[in-house]
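Task 17 of the worksheet. Students: predict the tertiary structure of the chain below and write it out as C-alpha coordinates. Keep your answer in the requested format; marks are given for formatting as well as content.
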Amino acid sequence: MNWAQRDLFESLHTCEIILKCRQIGITTFFAILLLDNVLWKDNVQAGIIAHTLDDSQSIFQDKLKYAFDNLHPAIRPLFKTKGDSAKELSFAHGSVIRVGTSLRGSTLQFLHISEFGKICAKYPERATEIITGSLQTVHSGQSIYIESTAEGREGAFFDLCQSAKAMKDSGKPLGKLDFKFNFFPWWREPSYLLDEKYEANEYLKEYFAKVELGGIALTHPQKAWYTKKYEILKELTLREFPSTPEEAFQASQEGFWYARQM
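Model answer:
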Protein backbone atom coordinates (compact mmCIF):
# COMPACT_ATOMS: atom_id res chain seq x y z
CA MET A 1 0.00 0.00 0.00
CA ASN A 2 1.07 3.58 -0.59
CA TRP A 3 0.79 6.34 2.03
CA ALA A 4 -2.86 7.24 1.25
CA GLN A 5 -4.00 3.62 1.17
CA ARG A 6 -2.12 2.95 4.43
CA ASP A 7 -3.77 5.96 6.10
CA LEU A 8 -7.21 4.65 5.18
CA PHE A 9 -6.45 1.05 6.10
CA GLU A 10 -5.14 1.89 9.57
CA SER A 11 -8.10 4.09 10.57
CA LEU A 12 -10.98 2.74 8.51
CA HIS A 13 -14.45 3.78 9.68
CA THR A 14 -17.75 2.24 8.59
CA CYS A 15 -18.59 5.39 6.59
CA GLU A 16 -15.78 7.25 4.82
CA ILE A 17 -15.92 10.32 2.61
CA ILE A 18 -12.68 11.16 0.84
CA LEU A 19 -11.75 14.39 -0.92
CA LYS A 20 -8.55 13.77 -2.86
CA CYS A 21 -6.09 14.77 -5.52
CA ARG A 22 -5.77 12.66 -8.64
CA GLN A 23 -4.00 9.35 -9.15
CA ILE A 24 -3.15 8.20 -5.62
CA GLY A 25 -4.78 4.75 -5.75
CA ILE A 26 -7.92 5.28 -3.66
CA THR A 27 -10.27 3.51 -6.10
CA THR A 28 -7.81 0.60 -6.34
CA PHE A 29 -7.63 0.38 -2.55
CA PHE A 30 -11.40 0.07 -2.11
CA ALA A 31 -11.75 -2.35 -5.03
CA ILE A 32 -9.22 -4.69 -3.37
CA LEU A 33 -10.75 -4.15 0.08
CA LEU A 34 -14.23 -5.11 -1.14
CA LEU A 35 -12.89 -8.07 -3.12
CA ASP A 36 -11.03 -9.26 -0.01
CA ASN A 37 -14.24 -9.22 2.04
CA VAL A 38 -16.17 -11.03 -0.68
CA LEU A 39 -13.52 -13.76 -1.03
CA TRP A 40 -13.04 -14.55 2.65
CA LYS A 41 -16.57 -14.11 4.04
CA ASP A 42 -19.76 -16.04 3.27
CA ASN A 43 -22.87 -14.36 1.86
CA VAL A 44 -21.37 -10.88 1.51
CA GLN A 45 -22.89 -8.48 -1.02
CA ALA A 46 -20.54 -5.73 -2.24
CA GLY A 47 -20.93 -3.10 -4.94
CA ILE A 48 -18.94 -0.37 -6.66
CA ILE A 49 -20.60 2.58 -8.41
CA ALA A 50 -18.58 4.45 -11.04
CA HIS A 51 -19.51 7.71 -12.75
CA THR A 52 -19.44 6.32 -16.32
CA LEU A 53 -19.96 2.94 -17.94
CA ASP A 54 -16.37 2.97 -19.24
CA ASP A 55 -15.06 3.61 -15.73
CA SER A 56 -17.18 0.82 -14.26
CA GLN A 57 -15.84 -1.63 -16.87
CA SER A 58 -12.28 -0.45 -16.21
CA ILE A 59 -12.66 -0.92 -12.44
CA PHE A 60 -14.08 -4.40 -12.99
CA GLN A 61 -11.49 -5.58 -15.52
CA ASP A 62 -8.32 -3.75 -14.43
CA LYS A 63 -8.76 -3.94 -10.67
CA LEU A 64 -11.22 -6.63 -9.54
CA LYS A 65 -10.89 -9.23 -12.28
CA TYR A 66 -7.14 -8.70 -12.65
CA ALA A 67 -6.58 -9.13 -8.91
CA PHE A 68 -8.77 -12.24 -8.74
CA ASP A 69 -7.23 -13.87 -11.82
CA ASN A 70 -3.75 -13.29 -10.40
CA LEU A 71 -4.27 -14.72 -6.93
CA HIS A 72 -1.44 -16.97 -5.78
CA PRO A 73 -1.85 -20.48 -7.22
CA ALA A 74 -1.86 -21.92 -3.70
CA ILE A 75 -5.12 -20.16 -2.78
CA ARG A 76 -6.83 -19.58 -6.15
CA PRO A 77 -8.54 -23.05 -6.13
CA LEU A 78 -10.24 -22.17 -2.81
CA PHE A 79 -12.65 -19.82 -4.58
CA LYS A 80 -15.21 -21.41 -6.88
CA THR A 81 -16.97 -18.89 -9.11
CA LYS A 82 -20.68 -19.29 -9.66
CA GLY A 83 -21.02 -16.37 -12.05
CA ASP A 84 -18.48 -14.33 -14.00
CA SER A 85 -20.03 -11.67 -16.20
CA ALA A 86 -18.75 -8.33 -17.49
CA LYS A 87 -19.78 -6.60 -14.26
CA GLU A 88 -20.17 -9.25 -11.55
CA LEU A 89 -18.20 -11.93 -9.74
CA SER A 90 -20.24 -14.34 -7.65
CA PHE A 91 -18.92 -17.29 -5.66
CA ALA A 92 -20.12 -20.67 -4.47
CA HIS A 93 -19.93 -19.54 -0.82
CA GLY A 94 -22.72 -17.04 -1.48
CA SER A 95 -20.75 -13.80 -1.83
CA VAL A 96 -20.89 -11.45 -4.81
CA ILE A 97 -19.28 -8.21 -5.95
CA ARG A 98 -20.80 -6.14 -8.76
CA VAL A 99 -19.88 -2.91 -10.52
CA GLY A 100 -22.13 -0.43 -12.33
CA THR A 101 -23.28 3.16 -12.70
CA SER A 102 -26.15 2.49 -10.29
CA LEU A 103 -26.95 -0.40 -7.96
CA ARG A 104 -30.50 0.45 -6.93
CA GLY A 105 -32.36 -2.52 -5.54
CA SER A 106 -29.25 -4.36 -4.32
CA THR A 107 -28.90 -5.13 -0.61
CA LEU A 108 -25.25 -4.43 0.16
CA GLN A 109 -22.93 -4.88 3.13
CA PHE A 110 -20.18 -2.89 1.38
CA LEU A 111 -20.67 -0.01 -1.06
CA HIS A 112 -17.96 2.06 -2.73
CA ILE A 113 -18.89 5.12 -4.82
CA SER A 114 -16.07 6.33 -7.06
CA GLU A 115 -15.89 9.97 -8.24
CA PHE A 116 -19.20 10.91 -6.63
CA GLY A 117 -18.43 14.61 -7.14
CA LYS A 118 -18.41 14.07 -10.90
CA ILE A 119 -21.69 12.13 -10.72
CA CYS A 120 -23.32 14.98 -8.77
CA ALA A 121 -22.05 17.63 -11.21
CA LYS A 122 -22.70 15.84 -14.52
CA TYR A 123 -25.55 13.48 -13.72
CA PRO A 124 -27.67 15.06 -10.94
CA GLU A 125 -30.61 12.71 -11.53
CA ARG A 126 -28.33 9.70 -11.12
CA ALA A 127 -26.83 11.27 -7.98
CA THR A 128 -30.34 11.56 -6.54
CA GLU A 129 -31.01 7.93 -7.48
CA ILE A 130 -27.81 6.86 -5.71
CA ILE A 131 -28.74 8.81 -2.57
CA THR A 132 -32.33 7.58 -2.44
CA GLY A 133 -31.57 4.08 -3.70
CA SER A 134 -28.08 2.66 -3.31
CA LEU A 135 -27.14 4.56 -0.14
CA GLN A 136 -30.34 3.38 1.53
CA THR A 137 -29.43 -0.29 1.03
CA VAL A 138 -26.58 -0.04 3.54
CA HIS A 139 -27.52 0.01 7.21
CA SER A 140 -25.83 0.27 10.62
CA GLY A 141 -22.90 -2.10 10.86
CA GLN A 142 -22.39 -2.09 7.11
CA SER A 143 -19.96 0.10 5.19
CA ILE A 144 -20.08 2.99 2.70
CA TYR A 145 -16.95 4.44 1.11
CA ILE A 146 -17.30 7.57 -1.05
CA GLU A 147 -14.36 9.24 -2.81
CA SER A 148 -13.89 11.93 -5.43
CA THR A 149 -12.02 14.94 -6.64
CA ALA A 150 -14.02 18.15 -6.18
CA GLU A 151 -16.60 19.32 -8.70
CA GLY A 152 -18.07 22.60 -7.54
CA ARG A 153 -19.69 23.91 -4.39
CA GLU A 154 -23.10 22.35 -4.96
CA GLY A 155 -24.47 18.84 -4.82
CA ALA A 156 -24.45 15.91 -2.44
CA PHE A 157 -20.69 15.32 -2.47
CA PHE A 158 -19.94 18.91 -1.47
CA ASP A 159 -22.63 18.81 1.23
CA LEU A 160 -21.38 15.50 2.65
CA CYS A 161 -17.80 16.79 2.73
CA GLN A 162 -18.84 19.98 4.50
CA SER A 163 -20.89 18.24 7.18
CA ALA A 164 -18.26 15.53 7.74
CA LYS A 165 -15.47 18.10 7.97
CA ALA A 166 -17.51 20.18 10.44
CA MET A 167 -17.98 17.10 12.62
CA LYS A 168 -14.28 16.29 12.43
CA ASP A 169 -13.36 19.86 13.40
CA SER A 170 -15.79 19.71 16.34
CA GLY A 171 -14.00 16.70 17.82
CA LYS A 172 -17.26 14.84 18.42
CA PRO A 173 -17.04 11.03 18.38
CA LEU A 174 -18.35 9.40 15.22
CA GLY A 175 -21.36 7.12 15.18
CA LYS A 176 -21.55 4.12 12.86
CA LEU A 177 -23.57 6.07 10.28
CA ASP A 178 -21.54 9.29 10.54
CA PHE A 179 -19.12 9.95 7.71
CA LYS A 180 -15.44 10.37 8.57
CA PHE A 181 -13.84 13.14 6.53
CA ASN A 182 -10.52 12.48 4.80
CA PHE A 183 -8.48 14.83 2.67
CA PHE A 184 -5.48 13.73 0.60
CA PRO A 185 -3.58 16.71 -0.90
CA TRP A 186 -1.12 16.60 -3.78
CA TRP A 187 1.87 17.68 -1.67
CA ARG A 188 1.76 14.43 0.35
CA GLU A 189 2.32 12.31 -2.76
CA PRO A 190 6.08 11.55 -2.89
CA SER A 191 6.13 11.05 -6.67
CA TYR A 192 4.81 14.56 -7.41
CA LEU A 193 8.29 16.02 -7.82
CA LEU A 194 10.27 17.47 -10.70
CA ASP A 195 13.99 18.07 -10.31
CA GLU A 196 14.21 20.89 -12.83
CA LYS A 197 14.42 24.65 -12.89
CA TYR A 198 11.07 26.39 -13.07
CA GLU A 199 9.75 29.89 -13.60
CA ALA A 200 6.72 30.70 -11.49
CA ASN A 201 4.53 33.60 -12.62
CA GLU A 202 3.16 36.13 -10.13
CA TYR A 203 0.05 34.06 -9.47
CA LEU A 204 2.09 30.95 -8.62
CA LYS A 205 4.48 32.92 -6.43
CA GLU A 206 1.50 34.24 -4.48
CA TYR A 207 -0.05 30.77 -4.40
CA PHE A 208 3.08 29.07 -3.04
CA ALA A 209 3.48 31.82 -0.43
CA LYS A 210 -0.14 31.40 0.66
CA VAL A 211 0.23 27.61 0.95
CA GLU A 212 3.39 27.98 3.02
CA LEU A 213 1.74 30.56 5.28
CA GLY A 214 -0.79 27.84 6.04
CA GLY A 215 2.01 25.69 7.48
CA ILE A 216 2.76 23.55 4.41
CA ALA A 217 6.47 23.56 3.52
CA LEU A 218 6.91 23.03 -0.24
CA THR A 219 10.25 21.93 -1.67
CA HIS A 220 11.79 23.17 -4.92
CA PRO A 221 10.94 19.90 -6.78
CA GLN A 222 7.34 20.12 -5.57
CA LYS A 223 7.01 23.70 -6.82
CA ALA A 224 8.57 22.74 -10.15
CA TRP A 225 6.10 19.84 -10.54
CA TYR A 226 3.10 22.00 -9.63
CA THR A 227 4.25 24.74 -12.04
CA LYS A 228 4.27 22.25 -14.93
CA LYS A 229 0.78 21.04 -14.00
CA TYR A 230 -0.46 24.63 -13.83
CA GLU A 231 0.86 25.36 -17.33
CA ILE A 232 -1.65 22.81 -18.66
CA LEU A 233 -4.54 22.92 -16.20
CA LYS A 234 -4.45 26.61 -15.18
CA GLU A 235 -7.02 27.26 -12.40
CA LEU A 236 -8.30 23.68 -12.66
CA THR A 237 -5.07 22.64 -10.90
CA LEU A 238 -6.82 23.71 -7.69
CA ARG A 239 -9.48 21.08 -8.29
CA GLU A 240 -7.32 18.25 -9.61
CA PHE A 241 -4.38 18.78 -7.24
CA PRO A 242 -5.64 20.72 -4.20
CA SER A 243 -3.47 21.77 -1.28
CA THR A 244 -6.39 22.30 1.13
CA PRO A 245 -10.02 21.13 1.30
CA GLU A 246 -11.31 24.68 0.78
CA GLU A 247 -9.18 25.12 -2.32
CA ALA A 248 -10.46 21.88 -3.87
CA PHE A 249 -13.97 23.24 -4.32
CA GLN A 250 -12.87 26.73 -5.27
CA ALA A 251 -11.91 25.97 -8.87
CA SER A 252 -15.42 25.10 -9.99
CA GLN A 253 -17.16 27.93 -8.18
CA GLU A 254 -19.27 30.11 -10.46
CA GLY A 255 -17.37 33.24 -11.40
CA PHE A 256 -13.97 31.86 -10.44
CA TRP A 257 -12.58 32.00 -13.96
CA TYR A 258 -12.42 35.81 -13.98
CA ALA A 259 -12.08 36.42 -10.26
CA ARG A 260 -8.29 36.76 -10.31
CA GLN A 261 -8.31 39.15 -13.29
CA MET A 262 -11.05 41.28 -11.72
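Marker's comment: The CA atoms of residues 57 and 161 lie 27 Å apart. Strands lie at 15-20, 45-49, 81-84, 88-91, 96-100, 110-114, 143-148, 180-184.
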